[in-house]
Amino acid sequence: MAILDSAKPRKREKSLWKRFLAGPLPWITPMLLLIFGIVLWPVYEMVRTSTLDIGGSGAVRGSAGFANYLELFENPNLAGAVSRTFFWVVSVVAITIFISLFLAQLLNAKFPGRRFVRYALIVPWAASVIMTATSFRWMLDGYYGIINRILGDLGLIEEPIEWLGNADTSFPWLIVVAVFVSLPFTTFVILAGLQTIPTEVYEAARVDGSTSRKTYFSITLPLLRNSLFIASVINLINVFNQFPIIWVMTGGGPGYTTDTTTTLMYKLAFRSQDIGVSASLSVVNFLIVLVFVLIYIRASGFGRKED
Amino acid sequence: MAILQTKPETREGNRRKANMARNGKTAILTTVGFAVAIMFLLPYIRMMFTAVTPADEVYKIPATIFHQVLSGRTS
User: Fold this and answer.
1) Which of A113, A149, A153 sits opposite B33 (nearest CB)?
2) Which of A32, A187, B9, B27 lies 20 to 30 Å from A234 when distance is taken between CA atoms?
3) 3-state secondary structure string, A192-248?
């Protein structure tokens, strides 16, 4: 009897597997191949490259083991780039989310010309990031830039400032441009979230005598949790991997003073011709962003069932 | 009962006050909305006018706020 009992689930498992092979597998195979080709294989190649000894001309000279990683951690610019990346990601994402909450609320309200304002907000999203960064770089130019002219006319500065010439002024401007570029997407995600909140909830709150401030913090914000989560995670990954803004506006300079890990990775690969070391930094980058996202998912409690 | 006892002038006054508050709110929202729109469009507007401005004016020190193309001057 015992043998017969244990054979039953195995038989059922076998038939389940057979059903899976005959049913869903043929349908999901193209998608699995796509995930393998686009996601998993490049990750494998990245990790493999980080353990290779690659010459300046690109010729593989054999395995390097962990030598590339050791060389990377001895790089004097790495610590600065990592700390700057953390500051860059946290400040850009936090400022973007904060401003987006106001903008989404504004775009959700009814007023004449609301459609025009919504379209205007899409422009930085639709425009190329390179174009936006170039435009800002030109406006911030020390000699020909409009920003110096306006600030000078207002009496806020006495002489032109080379905004992108030193890290103290260029890094805050990079943050401003990154926020400017990130705002449209975040605002529209939050706006979509706001539009899913039923009006009956607000009516019930009004009947209960809730103030507008209390309604916002007790109803709107909690119901926006999912939208905020999606906006934050996508922003976090985008900002972490942001390359064009920094590259166009400062090139990571002067020197390495505005480099993040992404621009440092590019410099290592194409300026220092250290492909292996650059690949090891991309592995480290990949792990950092993974940890970032996991910490955020855990902290936000996303996916956890409500009691 | 209390509503029934309210004078018609008072009710009219309340309605006028509510309308004024609503109009004021709409005006503020419209102003802020357009200010936001201009802020988001400004870099691109500047870029478009720079694209059609003669090089000698583009490299003028100090920079001109309104390019000749915008101000209608041709010389």
Assistant:
1) A113
2) A32
3) HHHHCCCHHHHHHHHHCCCCHHHHHHHHHHHHCHHHHHHHHHHHHHHHHCCCHHHHH
